[in-house]
Amino acid sequence: MTTAFDPIDLAGTRLANRIAMAPMTRSRAEAESRTPTALVTEYYAQRASAGLIITEGVQPVPQGQGYPFTPGLHSREQIAAWREVTEAVHARGGRIFAQLMHAGRISHPVVLPDGLHPVAPSAIAPAGQLFAGTGLIDFVAPRELTADEVPETIAGFAAAARNAVEAGFDGVEVHGANGYLVQQFLASGSNHRTDRWGGSVENRIRFAVEVVKAVADEIGPERTGLRISPANTYNDIAETDTEELYPALVAAIEPVGIAYLHVTEAAPGIRELTLALRKAFSGTFILNPATEGPTGADALALVEDGTADLVAYGALFLANPDLPARLKAGGPFNTPDPATFFGGDHRGYTDYPTL
Question: What is the pTM of this model?
């Protein structure tokens, strides 16, 4: 029987086990340069025993930033700083993918550099507020991306993927979940376009598919992953056709041959769709299962019964850097402190629903 502690081949990259560290926004980058700090290097190196680390969301372009103190992968300085992180993880035998996250409308001019304004598929402001470093502020209406800007944004993902490989990452994960730009294109509630990027399911999946293809063309499909969160309403996302949308998306990316599909379950009732996507996708399947609290040891059974190839842990990895060893020993486990998810200090903000 396969267990979560067995190694696995991820499209040519050997992983020591099937326990992934889920991406979690940490807001610990330098304010001006958006470069990861020494604290970031230490943080990921401490967790190198994960079969696969998926980093916090990293903005592929300056306009993709959604929160204060988050890192980018669009400058030479950022590449150099990330290289210190990847070398530290590799020195401890770990494997690490960079998550490329364009926040789209989940942003605000106060957190964007150089007077930039948030962009999105359509000029629809999300409900709610954004944590901007010193407190919560209302979202603003984004500017709709023009027909010319959409391909430019896709190219930004590809360029960031190239930068990630130069920085020593084993690959990248395209963030298509949790209400950020890629899911904003997918969801009918945030995408009211009438051109080839909106309207039908075929059109609304186009942006996600083209981003995945562009990244795979740039660095190879074996270094490319995609994260999705079907039916997730976080960040004011409204999907009216989830059951049709995601099978169509997976069918469209299947020929690309990417390394993995990472599914975040929004609720226990989504498991039937999760299993359908698992069956439709021929690559490695990573699951961040729906749970009442932080994902626990019982989720390891999802590997044993074949539901997933890897299980992604978030909050428990924050409190237990040596989580794989603790899971194998049956504990003990430090209890995650929710205060650190939402700003225990000015750089401690974590996008909790990504756990």
Answer: 0.95
Specify whether the CB–CB gap between 191 and 245 falls below 8 A.
Answer: no
- Please say whether the dihedral angle defined by the alpha carbons of residues 301, 101, 182 and 336, taken in this order, is positive or negative: positive
Tokens read off for 195: 């051109």
Any idea how long the chain is?
A: 355
Q: Cα dist. 303→1, 90, 295 in Å? A: 10, 25, 14
Q: Is the peptide bond before 332 cis (omega within 30 degrees of 0)?
A: yes
Instruction: Assess contact for 130 and 93: CB atoms under 8 A.
Output: no
Q: Quote the pLDDT of residue 293.
A: 85
Tens-place pLDDT, residues 104-160: 999 999 999 989 999 999 999 999 999 887 789 999 999 999 999 999 999 999 999
* Phi, psi (deg, nearest 5) at residue 265: -80, 125
The CA distance from 168 to 5, in Å, is 25
Of 43, 44, 67, 180, which one is the catalytic site residue? 180
Question: By three-state DSSP, how is residue 250 classified?
Answer: helix
Structure tokens at 247: 């099978």
Is 180 noted as a catalytic residue in this protein?
yes
Beta bridge partners of 174: 100, 226
Give tens-digit pLDDT for 187-222: 999 999 999 999 999 999 999 999 999 999 999 999
Instruction: Copy the structure tokens of residue 142.
Output: 């984004």
Residue 278's H or E segment, with its range, is: helix 271-280
Q: What is the distance between the alpha carbons of residues 271 and 274, in angstroms, rounded to a whole number?
A: 5
